[in-house]
Structure formats: C-alpha cells, structure tokens
Amino acid sequence: MTMNRVGYIVNLLLISVSTTMAQQACGSPVVSERIVGGSDANEGAWPWQVSLKYQGNHVCGGSLISKQWVLTAAHCFLEPINPSDYSVGLGEYQLQNTSPNQFLSNVQRIIESSLYSGAHTQGDIALIELSSPITYTQYILPVCVPTSSMSFSDGTDCWVTGWGDTGSGVNLISPQTLRQVMVPIISNSVCDQIYHIGSDVGASQNIIPSDHICAGYQAGQKDSCQGDSGGPLVCKVNGVWYQAGVVSWGEECGKSNRPGVYTYVPNYYNWMDSYEALSSSSMFVASSLLLTNCLLLHTGLYLPSGLP
Fold first, then answer.
1. Contact by Cβ (8 Å): 137, 161
2. Euclidean distance between CA atoms 176 and 47, whole angstroms
3. What pLDDT is attached to residue 3?
4. So what's the pLDDT on residue 170?
5. What residues form DSSP beta bridges with 228?
6. Number of Cβ within a 10 Å radius of residue 101
7. Quick one: residue 3, left, alpha or beta (phi over 0 = left, psi -120 to 50 = alpha)?
8. Nearest partner of 25 among 231, 246, 239, judged by Cα
9. Strand partners, 55
10. Cα–Cα distance measured from residue 265 to residue 148, given in angstroms and rounded to the nearest whole number
C-alpha cells in the first residue's frame, strides 16, 4: 500500500475521532438563541440543566458534568440521605409536559462536601452519581467545569437557569417552562459589603462564606429563587460555557442589596476530580486515540519506533 493511501486512511480515522470528540464536547449546546432577562428558555438551549426530584417531585436544579455525574447543592438533600428517594430528569423543558427528549435516571450515590454543615455555610455543593452512564443527545449535554486556576471576574455577564419561583412565594406557572436570566458576577468581597447594608451583622463578621460568590444587581429585580437551588450559573469563555457557580442561597428573591449567592465551582474542581466525576471526557479522548492506534496496528500501518 502506498504512503498516500496510508495517509488518506489515517486522516479519515483522525477526522472521525475528532468529529465524535467535537460532538461530545462540554459547554457547547446545539440550540443557542437566548433572550436577555427573566424569560422562558428555548428547548435545548441549556442541555446540561437537570431536575433533581425527591420521590418524583422537583426539588432542585442541577447540572450534568459528565456521562454519569451531576453537580448540585448539598442543601437539596434531606437527612438521612437515601439515594433511592431521588431521581434526575435530563433533557426536561416543561416539568408538567413530558417530552420525547427527556430521560429519567435513578441515583446510585450522593456525595456532599465534608465542609457543609448547614444553611449559609461553606461546602454547599454535592455530586450525584447516576445509576448508569447516559447517552448524550442534542438535549442532554454536559457543561464544562472550570479548573481551580480559572476565575470569573467581577461584572462578568453570566446566566442562571431553573424552574424555581418567579418571585418570593410566587410559583412558576403551568406548564413550568425552564426559565433563564442574565446576571453579572459580584465578587465575594463586594457581595459581603452589599449584604452588610441594612444588616445587624457587624462589619468585621463575614456574611458570605469564603467559598461563595454572588451574581445579580444591587438594585435587585433579576435573581434566582426558591426551586432554583443546586442549578448552574454559567459563563461563556472563548465560545464555551463554564459553570462558575451552584445556586446556594439568598435573602428573598430579587431584593435590593441581596443578590443571589452561589458556591464557587473552581474551588471544588479537585474535590470533584478526586471522585473521578470529571473523567468521562478525558477517558473518551484516550479511548478514541487508543482505538485509532489499534486500527492502524491492525492494518499494518503503524510501527512503534525501534522496530524494523
């Protein structure tokens, strides 16, 4: 076989691998149209958004981060935690209408951060291991998880999504369509200063935990709310969506001087990685490259160095 023929086959194999890898890429939804500010999302626009259900009822949001793992908030679970009480809805759009694009998964394991000790504390983050790996579709794709070295600066416009209340005590109306709102990042230190306005807490005492950030407006109006807990705050970096925060808590919803508070995801990258919750993508890349090498070896087109 000529070298041109060899090169042609190698290129075909690499193109096939690259195409499949691109289809598996995190943070790249197929649907991209969005409307700024407190509105219904388009179906498929946020394919990592999940619904965490307790005994069949929606209780929190969450985000798909790999084929078998979901990220959410620790406060979403009732103690003692029984994984069989929970399920995860993927690809859902309207909670009261079943779609052929959605899939319900059982839960195998729930892991809370050891730092979590109750409301408004550090470590309000949890991992959900699904009962089996899921198949990615146009409506079910993972968000990218930022490494511990990544940062999201004050003022960065990001998006929060969920099926939560549309105001304090105001339930999302039927058919409970996924909602979205754009909110800017507020750094931990600035947010802590804002939360001290009108508060009885002394200036020397922190209100915002050190592993949290905020997002929203000092004037209020646009915010996450009850029922959005555990859901993703995502920011677009070089054309790719990364999850900067997990909806943690807030004082009412959309209240002035009380922006939404989020567990800061980069702080927990190593923690997630320790459970191999982020390994699916890298495992896929490694497997694809191994497959390519095996195919080349099988056709006699690849010779390791040092061999005749």
1. no
2. 17
3. 41
4. 58
5. none
6. 16
7. alpha
8. 239
9. none
10. 8
> Distance between CA atoms of 252 and 195, rounded to whole angstroms?
13
pTM to 2 decimals?
A: 0.81
Residue positions counted in the chain:
308
What pLDDT is recorded for position 16?
43
Phi, psi of 265 (to 5 degrees): -65, -40
Give the strand pairing for 39-40 and 232-237: unpaired
Contact status, residue 91 vs residue 103, Cβ threshold 8 Å:
yes
Tokens of 92: 């859902």
Q: What are phi and psi of 71, to 5 degrees?
A: -105, 135
Residues of the chain with pLDDT under 50: 1-23, 33-37, 281-308
Give residue 129's Cα distance to chain centre: 14
Side chain identity at residue 52, one-letter code: L
Active site residues: 75, 124, 229
- Tokens encoding 210: 């050190």
DSSP one-letter string for 124-192: --EEEEESSPPPPBTTB-PPBPPPTT----TT-EEEEEES--SBTTBPPPTT-B-EEEEEEEE-HHHHH
- 70 Cβ contact partners less than 8 Å away, ≥ 6 residues apart: 50, 52, 62, 63, 64, 88, 127, 128, 130
How far is it, in rounded angstroms, from Cα 194 to Cα 190?
Answer: 6
The structure tokens listed for 144 are 């990218």
Residue whose entry in the numeric block shows the structure tokens 């943690």: 248
**Torsion, CA 179, CA 57, CA 214, CA 237, rounded to 10:** -60
Q: 278 and 201 in contact (C-beta within 8 Å)?
A: no
